[in-house]
Amino acid sequence: MPLKNEIALVTGATRGIGKAIAEALGKSGATVVGT
Description:
2 strands, 1 helix, alpha+beta
C-alpha cells in the first residue's frame, strides 16, 4: 500500500519490532518519525 504524503510516528523505532515497522513504512513511502 503506497503511503506517499503520510507521516508515521513509531515509538520504539530503534530496535526490534519497532525498527522493522519503521523500515517497512519508510519503504512504502511514508515519512517516518521514530522515538
